[in-house]
Amino acid sequence: MNMAKLNVHGDDTTLKSILDVLPTEPERQWRKGEPKEAGRVYLDSGFEVLIAQAAQAQTLSSRMRSYLAECDSRGVSFSMPRIVAELQFELQGDAQHAASLDLSLADLGVLGEMGISLSVAVREGGASAPTPA
C-alpha cells in the first residue's frame, strides 16, 4: 500500500498550537524523553498524521494537495522556529512495476512555503530504500 504521512516534531507549546487546528487527529504521538526502540529516548515531542493510503501512488498527490490546502485554510504553518515537519511518501514497487509519484513545481513550492521537507521511500520486496526527491 502506498502512503503519505506528515511527521512533525519540536517544541511542546508550538506542537500543541498546531494540533489544535490540524484537520485530522494524529495517528501517533510521542513526548520528549519517552522510550523508543533500542533503548533510546525521543529527543523532541512530536506526532505523525496519515494523510493518505492508496493502491495507486499517483492518488497520493491529489490527497496531499487537499490536505495541505485544508491546513492552509486553518492557518496551519510548519515554518515556525523549533518545529520540523516532513512529508513522507512510502511507495510500493516490485520487479514488474516501478513505483512513481509526480509532484509539480507548484506542489514543491507549497511544501517549501509551509516549511515542510520531503522524503520518498520505495519499498520493493519488503526492503526500503530512500530515493532522492
Give a structural overview.
The chain is of the alpha+beta class and 133 residues long. The chain has one domain (2-46, 55-130). 27% of the residues lie in helices and 35% in strands. It is built from three helices and six strands, in the order βαββαβαββ. It has helices at residues 12-21, 58-73, 105-114, and strands spanning 2-10, 28-30, 45-54, 83-93, 116-124, 127-130. It has a six-stranded mixed sheet with strand order 2-3-1-4-5-6. Strand 4, helix 3 and strand 5 form a beta-alpha-beta unit. The chain is globular and about 45 Å long. It starts with a strand and ends with a strand. The mean pLDDT is 89.
Layout: helices, strands, pairs:
Elements (H helix, E strand, L loop, with lengths): L1 E9 L1 H10 L6 E3 L14 E10 L3 H16 L9 E11 L11 H10 L1 E9 L2 E4 L3
Parallel strand pairs: 4-5
Antiparallel strand pairs: 1-3, 1-4, 2-3, 5-6
Q: Based on CA inertia axes, which overall geometry fits?
A: globular
Number of separate structural domains: 1
Strand element count: 6
- The radius of gyration computed from the alpha-carbon positions, rounded to a whole number of angstroms, is 15 Å
> What count of helical segments does DSSP give?
3
End-to-end Cα distance: 20 Å
> What is the mean pLDDT?
89
Q: State the secondary-structure class.
A: alpha+beta
In N-to-C order, the SSE pattern is: EHEEHEHEE
How much helicity do the residues have? 25-40%
**Main sheet properties:** 6 strands, mixed
Low-confidence stretches: none
* Largest sheet strand order: 2-3-1-4-5-6
Beta-strand content: 25-35%
